[in-house]
Amino acid sequence: MTINSSLPVDNKKSTRSNDRTVNQFFNTYFSKKLEFASNEVIAVRGFFERKGFSKTAADAISIVLLQQAKIDGVKVFELIDTMKKYETNQLSELVTEILNHNRLNTSVLGIKKENTQTTIENRNIHL
Question: CA of 64: how far to CAs of 48, 93, 120, in Å?
Answer without folding.
Answer: 13, 15, 44
